[in-house]
């Protein structure tokens, strides 16, 4: 089956406690290259049949209305899974 990937991230002005916790742990584990971390969500939507422009539009609408909370999150990407292109 083909898949559409939806990536959602907290808005920049929203506190990200999970990202902050990971950012604090990384240097203690020897990963000193990273200045900050933001944690988001990834959804994989399986599609029966081809991924058409209509399917991508429906995925964008679902992302905006169901998969994200527009008050605190941004939909940052709606893409076709690499192995489905």
Automatic annotation (TrEMBL):
<keyword id="KW-0067">ATP-binding</keyword>
<keyword id="KW-0547">Nucleotide-binding</keyword>
<keyword id="KW-0658">Purine biosynthesis</keyword>
<comment type="similarity">
    <text>Belongs to the PurS family.</text>
</comment>
<keyword id="KW-0436">Ligase</keyword>
<dbReference type="InterPro" id="IPR003850">
    <property type="entry name" value="PurS"/>
</dbReference>
<dbReference type="GO" id="GO:0004642">
    <property type="term" value="F:phosphoribosylformylglycinamidine synthase activity"/>
</dbReference>
<dbReference type="GO" id="GO:0005737">
    <property type="term" value="C:cytoplasm"/>
</dbReference>
<comment type="pathway">
    <text>Purine metabolism; IMP biosynthesis via de novo pathway; 5-amino-1-(5-phospho-D-ribosyl)imidazole from N(2)-formyl-N(1)-(5-phospho-D-ribosyl)glycinamide: step 1/2.</text>
</comment>
<comment type="subunit">
    <text>Part of the FGAM synthase complex composed of 1 PurL, 1 PurQ and 2 PurS subunits.</text>
</comment>
<dbReference type="InterPro" id="IPR036604">
    <property type="entry name" value="PurS-like_sf"/>
</dbReference>
<dbReference type="Pfam" id="PF02700">
    <property type="entry name" value="PurS"/>
</dbReference>
<comment type="function">
    <text>Part of the phosphoribosylformylglycinamidine synthase complex involved in the purines biosynthetic pathway. Catalyzes the ATP-dependent conversion of formylglycinamide ribonucleotide (FGAR) and glutamine to yield formylglycinamidine ribonucleotide (FGAM) and glutamate. The FGAM synthase complex is composed of three subunits. PurQ produces an ammonia molecule by converting glutamine to glutamate. PurL transfers the ammonia molecule to FGAR to form FGAM in an ATP-dependent manner.</text>
</comment>
<keyword id="KW-0963">Cytoplasm</keyword>
<protein>
    <recommendedName>
        <fullName>Phosphoribosylformylglycinamidine synthase subunit PurS</fullName>
        <ecNumber>6.3.5.3</ecNumber>
    </recommendedName>
</protein>
<dbReference type="GO" id="GO:0006189">
    <property type="term" value="P:'de novo' IMP biosynthetic process"/>
</dbReference>
<dbReference type="GO" id="GO:0005524">
    <property type="term" value="F:ATP binding"/>
</dbReference>
């Amino acid at each position: 089956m083909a898949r559409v990937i939806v990536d959602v991230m907290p808005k920049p002005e929203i506190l990200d406690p999970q990202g902050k916790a990971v950012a604090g742990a990384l240097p203690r584990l020897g990963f000193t290259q990273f200045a900050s971390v933001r944690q988001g969500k990834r959804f994989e939507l399986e599609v029966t049949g081809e991924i058409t422009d209509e399917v991508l539009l429906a995925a964008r609408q679902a992302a905006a209305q169901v998969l994200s909370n527009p008050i605190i999150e941004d939909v940052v990407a709606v893409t076709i899974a690499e192995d489905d292109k």
